[in-house]
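Propose amino acids for all 205 sites.
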C-alpha cells in the first residue's frame, strides 16, 4: 500500500534516531539550511492508479531555497490528476492535457539530529480552455497538506507528501477529493502523492 511506501521512503531518508529533541534554528542557520537543500533532484512520485495499485512516475525536482523557497516537480503528468476525476467525460479531457511543472512553496520548521522537517504548500494547477460537452472550461485542481512536517530532508535525499483536495470548474467547486476531516479514511489514500528525491551532484546540474 501507499502508506508502506511513505514509511519506507521516510525511514530510508531518516535512518534511526533515539533523540527526538528539536533544535531551535537561528536566522543564519535557517538560511544555510535553505542553501543546503537547494539544487536539482531526481526521483519518483508515487500514487495509486485507476486499479488502486501503486504507480510511479520519474520526475526531476528543483528546489530553490534562498530568496524563493519553492519546489518544482516536473514533468508531472495530467493523467495523475485525471485518475481522481469522477466525471468520466472531464476525466478523459484532462488525460489529453500536457504534462506540467507542479510548484509548491515550502518552509523549514524544525531541525532534529541532521534532519530538516519542512512544510509544503502546493500551488493550484489550472488547465485553461479544456474542451468537453461542446464548450471550453477552465479546470483548477487544489491541493492540501495537514501537517507541518510533510517534507523531510537528510543526506541529500528528501521525501514529501501532498494531497489532491478538489477541482473547480470555471471558478465554482465541482468535485471534492481528499477529506481533511477523515485523514485516515480509505479513499484518502487514492488522493495521496509521495515524492522521493535524491540530490544530483553539483557537476551533474
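Proposal:
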Amino acid at each position: 500500500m501507499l502508506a508502506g511506501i511513505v514509511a519506507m521512503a521516510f525511514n530510508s531518508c531518516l535512518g534511526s534516531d533515539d533523540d527526538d529533541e528539536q533544535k531551535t534554528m537561528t536566522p543564519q542557520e535557517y538560511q544555510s539550511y535553505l542553501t543546503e537543500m537547494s539544487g536539482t533532484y531526481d526521483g519518483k512520485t508515487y500514487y495509486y492508479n485507476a486499479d488502486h495499485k501503486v504507480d510511479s512516475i520519474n520526475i526531476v525536482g528543483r528546489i530553490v531555497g534562498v530568496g524563493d523557497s519553492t519546489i518544482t516537480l516536473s514533468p508531472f503528468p495530467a493523467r495523475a490528476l485525471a485518475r481522481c476525476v469522477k466525471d468520466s467525460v472531464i476525466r478523459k479531457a484532462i488525460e489529453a492535457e500536457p504534462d506540467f511543472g507542479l510548484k509548491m512553496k515550502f518552509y523549514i520548521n524544525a531541525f532534529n539530529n541532521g534532519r530538516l522537517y519542512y512544510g509544503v504548500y502546493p500551488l493550484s494547477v489550472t488547465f485553461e480552455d479544456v474542451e468537453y460537452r461542446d464548450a471550453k472550461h477552465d479546470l483548477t485542481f487544489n491541493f492540501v497538506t495537514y501537517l507541518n512536517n510533510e517534507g523531510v530532508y537528510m543526506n541529500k535525499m528528501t521525501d514529501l507528501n501532498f494531497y489532491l483536495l478538489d477541482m473547480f470548474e470555471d471558478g465554482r467547486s465541482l468535485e471534492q477529493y481528499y477529506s481533511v476531516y477523515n485523514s485516515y479514511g480509505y479513499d484518502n489514500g487514492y488522493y495521496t502523492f509521495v515524492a522521493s528525491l535524491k540530490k544530483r551532484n553539483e557537476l551533474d546540474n
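Helices lie at 2-14, 27-37, 78-82, 88-95. Residues 12-19 have pLDDT under 50 and may be disordered.
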